[in-house]
Structure formats: C-alpha cells, structure tokens
Amino acid sequence: MIEARNVWKKYGDKVVLERINLQVKEGEFVTLVGTSGCGKSTFLKMLLGTESASSGELLLHGKPVPGEPGPDRGIVFQQYSVFPHLSVLQNVMAARGFAGRNMTGLLFGRARREAYQEALALLEEVGLAHAQALYPAELSGGMRQRLAIAQALLGRPGILLLDEPFGALDPGIRADMHELVLRLWRQYRLTVFLVTHDLKEGFYLGTRLWVFDKTRHDPQAPDAYGATITYDLPVGKVDRETLTEIDRDLARTANQMERDHEAL
Amino acid sequence: MKRLINQTPSPVLRVVLGLLPFVLLVVLYTYASDARLAENPADKLLPSFGQIGDAIQRMAFEPSKRSGDYLVWEDTLASLTRLGLGVLIAATLGLALGLFTGALPLVSASASPLLTVISLIPPLAILPVLFIVFGLGELSKVALIAIGITPFIARDIQRRTQEIPYEQLVKAQTLGANTSQIICRVLLPQLMPRLLDAVRLSLGAGWLFLIAAEAIAATEGLGYRIFLVRRYMAMDVILPYVAWITLLAFVIDASLAALSRRLFPWHGQGGH
Fold first, then answer.
1. Measured between CA atoms, how close is A156 to chain B, in angstroms?
2. Is residue A31 in some structural domain?
3. Which residue of B has its CA nearest to A150?
4. How far apart are CA B45 and CA B161, in angstroms?
5. Does A137 fall in a domain?
6. CA separation for the pair A100, A180 (Å, rounded)
7. Does B62 reside within a domain?
8. Which domain holds residue A21?
9. How far, in Å, are A17, A18, A110, A221 from residue A215 at the CA level?
10. Is the Cβ pair A137, B272 closer than 8 Å?
C-alpha cells in the first residue's frame, strides 16, 4: 500500500535522506530507528504530508502522498498532540466533530450522544474512563499519550504514525504502552509506523525494523551525503549478533556527526 | 549569613514590607501638608486630609449647585462607558485581525505589514484628525481608545496564535478538520484567555487615551473634571479623583483576572 521509489530529501545543499526504496503492505508494524538527525522523523513527516520528497516518488495506494495531513493517516507526537483546552472526553469527542462537515466542528443532538458513547468506549479501552473529566495538564505523561492514541483512533485512520510517542515516559510506563499499541494495532488492523530512539524497542515491537543510517561520509562536506535504510529486517527472526552490529553502526554514525558538529 | 539573592521574607515580613512604603508616603504627605498650611492656611497645593474629605463629600454625596448632578458618579459613568466601548471594539477587532493574520499565511502576507505600520502611529497624533472627522462628541473619544489599543491587541493575538504548537494543527487535520473547524475549535478557544490578558495589559494605555481625549473636548468625565478644576488649583478634588481612577483600574484588572481563572481553568497549567 505504501511504496517509495528512489526518494531523496534535501534542505538546500543538505541531504537528509537518499535512495529510499521500499514497499509496505497493509497491516505491517514498522519500527524506525536511527541516530538523531538521520531522517527517520523526516520520513514520517513525508508520510504525514507535512514534508514532501525532493525527488523520487512516495506512493500511498498507488498515488503520491497528499501534500497535507488527512484523516487516513493518524498521528501521535511526543508531546502537544492533545488539545489543552478540552477535557479528556472532549478531546476524543472532538475527533467526531472534525469528521463532520459543518463550519464549527461542534456536535449537537444525536450526533453528540453517539460521539459521547463512542468516545467513552474508546477511553475505556485505553484505560482512561476514570479520568474523562480532567484536563490534559492534570494527566501524567503516560495518560496523556493514551489520550492522544485514543483521539487518533476515533478518526478511524488506516495508518497510524507514532513519532517517538514514548520518548518522555518512564521505562515501566513504556512497557504498558507497548502492550496497548500492539493490542490496538491488531484490533483495528492498522498499519503502524513507530519512530524511536530505542533500538531495543524496535527489536520486539511489531513486524519490521528499519534502521536509518549514513553509509557514506565526507569529513570535508558532512552534509553532502544523507541517510538511507541500512537494515530492513523482519522482527522476531533477528539474532543477538545483528543487534550488536546495528548498535555499533549507529554509535559510529552518532560519533561522526558529533565530530562534524565540533569541526564547524 | 546567606547571600542577599537567597534571602526571602517570611509571610508576615512580606506584608509589613509591602505596607511600609504606603505608610511612609502618608506620613510624609501629612507632615508636608501640615507644614505648608501652618505657613499659609489658604494654601491649595497640599490640602489636609480634612479638606480632601470635604471635597469628596461635596463631589460625591451632594448634588452640584449648578446642575444638580452628583458629579463623581456622573463622571465615572461617562468615562467607564467610553473606556468600555473603546476596549470592547478594540478587543473584537484585535481578536479578528490577530487570529486571521496568525492562522492564515495568505491573510498575514497582505495585512501584517500594514498592521505594523499602523501600530507605529502615535494615536494621540491623530486625535485632531478624529475630532475633525467624528466631531467633538462621544464617537471621537471612543475611536481614539479603539484605534490606540487595537494594533497592540492584534499583534499580541497574532503572536499567541503562532505560538500554539503546530502539532495541534496537524493533529486536528489528521482527524479530518477543515480550516474553519480548526479556527473555531482549536485556535479560538485557546486564544480567549490570552485575549483577556491582552486587554488587561492594554487598559493602562486605554486610560491614557481616555483622559487625554476628555481633557481636550468633553462636558463630563473623570479626565474632564481633573483638567477643569486644575484652573482653580483644586488639589483637594484632583487627588481623590486620581485615587478613584487608580482604584477603578485596579478593580477592573482584578475582575478580568478572576474572570479568566473562572472561565478558563485549563489556562496557565502548562499545557501539553
């Protein structure tokens, strides 16, 4: 359903991504790992529609990805992805209001009652029913991300994009969130793209792991080469050696980028 | 001994330290007033608290000999009506301008440069223009206040609109929201408490424009009165009028702050 044909992304002279070729089938759970600045978030934004490819084609159902976000692709960011002025329940119900085509996005009468029932059921599912009257600022980080996920799911997207959603959470909470995401992925038959810093996270979550890394490096012109997908592995069939190898590669790139930065 | 920057007053000491300057001012005034009045009982510059009390009694609680009105209340009503109307118009215009220039890059491209230029015009410099165009009646005074603070509110709201995290706009779009829904449901509600903040900040300028306009052309109003009695050096009237204006400004500010807390409990909690 998603296909990239020799996709490049440049900002001016700076190459971020190069030679991206891939195909993703419906229902896959892809985890994107790599050092910061290696383009994994940029790739996610290209799927989202807030960034576009500089050259090459990124296709969704055979057509180029639209140039702006749409209801077929849900998103959860690391932060700021819920509305601070709406209660937990209103946040989820807002998704229904936005799906309607009226001017204000407000719900009335039967539509409102239906949205209420639906939102409540979804909150139950992510374990937030007891917190429905609270505002986001009153929630813990984990609860806030559960809310963001529930909100995204009410829009019934086929694709769910997760941009380091658990980066700011405590390790214990993370495990709960992994379980939640895996459960919802199966239940709603989603295609999931998860960006993470944590290589281990990518190693047991989902069905497929992509490692974004730079393979070429010119010390005189650090921006001349971009990152590409160096490993495309099925999750669950990877041995410990590969993990160590990837870890070593990523550490080397991180060091290299650090040195480039210092040289400036 | 801790460093000075690390020394904080206890709650009691804080109150005492806060009251101290006020007490000192009153003592200093009483002393200076007594000294001058002892020298010349007809002195008008620093009236005693007794004389000020008499003036308050005369202006607030006895009908004017000439018109039969209770002057303070009449002045207050006239001034607050002008200020309220001016600020209301400015808040409405400022919100609309700020919201649309902040949210829609196409509108911003055409309106922002003009807004910047207009905000640089000193409003008092165009007061004569307003008097010529709108006449000497209420309209020109209200217009001065509105014109004076609209650019400030508009630019503040524009900045606040742009400060709303981009992630929220993207999120709304992934839920299928169109532009007007994003404006109505995401931007506008979050801007309301910020609008109240902007209004509170602009009230000081609002008072300035009000008093300036009243001083030049009016037949009643708080600013008109102080400039009128200046001719007779009636400090016993001017001082309580200034205190009354200060009190009004304080009460309005405090009420707006309370209103904001009540209507927008989610505001100022550090949103995510």
1. 9
2. yes
3. B175
4. 50
5. yes
6. 28
7. no
8. 2-72+159-263
9. 11, 10, 57, 14
10. yes
Whether ipTM tops 0.85, in short, is yes
- pLDDT above 70: residue B37: yes
Answer for the pair A153, A188: CB distance below 8 angstroms, yes or no: yes
CB pairs under 8 A between A and B: 106
Does residue B222 sit in helix, strand or coil? helix
DSSP state of B165: -
CB contact under 8 A, A98 and B175: yes
Q: Provide the domain count of chain A.
A: 2
> What is the nearest CA distance from B178 to chain A, expressed in angstroms?
7
Which chain B positions have a beta carbon within 8 Å of A74's beta carbon? Answer: 174-175
The owner of tokens 């649309």 is B100
Amino acid residing at B16 = V
A84/B271 touch (CB, cutoff 8 Å), yes or no: yes
CATH (domain of B224): 1.10.3720.10
Domain span at residue B153 reads 71-263
State pLDDT tens for residues B152-206: 999 999 999 999 999 999 999 999 999 999 999 999 999 999 999 999 999 999 9
A-chain residues within 8 Å CB-CB of B173?
68-70
Could you say which of A85, A136, A151 has the minimum Cβ distance to residue B190? A85
* B98 within domain boundaries: yes
Which of B164, B167, B169, B171 to mutate: most A Cβ within 10 Å? B171
CATH, residue A58:
3.40.50.300
| Residue whose structure tokens are 């016993």 | B236
A89/A52 same-domain check: no
Cβ-defined contact of B174 to A50 (cutoff 8 Å): no
